[in-house]
Amino acid sequence: MSTNLVSTYDPLGFGGVVQEYTWTWDNQPLRVIYETIGTGSPLLLLPAFSSVSMRGEMGELANLLAPHFQVTVVDWPGFGESSRPSLNYRPEIYQQFLEDFIHSVFSPPITVVAAGHASSYVLQLAAKQPHLFLRILLLAPTWRGPLPTMGASPQIANAVKGLVRSPIVGQGLYKLNTTPSFLTWMYRRHVFTDDSKLTPSFINKKWLTTQKPGARFASAAFVTGNLDAINNQADYLTLVRNLSIPLMVVIGESSPPKSRQEMNAVAALPGVTSVVIPGSLGLHEEHPDIVFTATQDFLLTP
Q1: Going by C-beta distance under 8 Å and a sequence separation of 6 or more, which residues neighbour residue 42?
Q2: Do residues 78 and 14 touch, judged by C-beta distance below 8 A?
Q3: Phi, psi of 179, deg, nearest 5
Q4: Are 218 and 51 in contact (CB under 8 A)?
Q5: Which 3 state secondary structure label does DSSP give 170?
Q6: How far apart are alpha carbons 148 and 225 in whole angstroms?
Q7: 224: left (phi > 0), else alpha (psi -120 to 50), else beta?
Q8: Sheet-wide strand order for 28-37
Q9: Is residue 122 within 8 Å of residue 43, measured between CB atoms?
Q10: Cβ count within 10 A of residue 176
Q11: What integer is the mean pLDDT of 108-125?
């Protein structure tokens, strides 16, 4: 495993130093891209898993945090500008990746800010190695993928995953579900609350990341619940209850009902700091200034 400088500027980034981390899974080297900006104590920003997951969604928040921290944002394997091989994407890959990445790139302990599904992986690692973290901030945390949330059985979800992974039918299905019009509909439904921010250039940038070679493999795993590191709400709440690290949760007031209910359950646990702000599942990208203002006291506590 190694780290190399790629560039000091990247058009898909946010003005930081872009680097490449070579990580090996099952004897296959993967190129993982991450970007660092600012000075100070280390802070890791983890994007949410989604068909359009990329480190750029954390860019504005990273710049707000940069005067106070050395901020690192990573493109998960299979997403963003990182390698997208046709692996059988599953939780074990990301559990091991997160552990290896933190040990290789940082001198722990660090502060970590995780959006969406990334929260499950952080909580699991914190239970296993609490010494890695100073504090944890979760942004619109989720643990269940879109199809399981809609009520699809594991059999149906796995059938869909298999179809999307297939060479011809899968490519067609994936393209239908990543058209600009579909991405706009998805954002309006449960990601953003302000339609004026869904400009043609914004949607085109999202569409471009879905069209990269191999993009459908990790995306299909997420959508079908195959990246769900937690199997039920009780296990998620148990991880939070047993946490010995300061934890804060940010909830979007317009989050989908099921997700909002589950976020509220986390916020109600003893010792958890929480705040409700405007937005939905993409609040970290739609309202980075509000996120920063609402969480700076927690993040900057000595």
Answers
A1: 69, 70, 72, 106, 107, 110, 111
A2: no
A3: -65, 155
A4: no
A5: helix
A6: 6
A7: alpha
A8: 2-7, 17-25, 28-37, 69-74, 41-46, 110-115, 133-139, 247-252, 272-277
A9: no
A10: 9
A11: 97
Distance, in Å, from the CA atom of 86 to the CA atom of 290, rounded to the nearest integer, reads 38
In this structure, the chain runs to a length of: 302
pLDDT-derived band at 5 (thresholds 50, 70, 90) equals: low
Residues with Cβ within 8 Å of residue 269, at least 6 apart in sequence: 237, 240, 241
pTM: 0.93
Rounded-to-integer distance, Cα 155 and Cα 172, Å: 21
The one-letter code for the residue type at 262 is E
What average pLDDT does range 229-254 have in this prediction? 96
Give 54's Cβ-side CA count (13 Å radius).
Answer: 22
Tokens 């199809």, residue located:
147
> Tell me, what amino acid is at 50?
S
CB 71 within 8 A of CB 38: yes
Residue 115: count other Cβ atoms within 10 Å of its Cβ.
29
The DSSP bridge partners found for residue 71 are 37, 43
**pLDDT value at position 9?**
46
The owner of tokens 């299905």 is: 173
DSSP 123: H
> CA–CA separation, 104 vs 116, rounded Å?
24
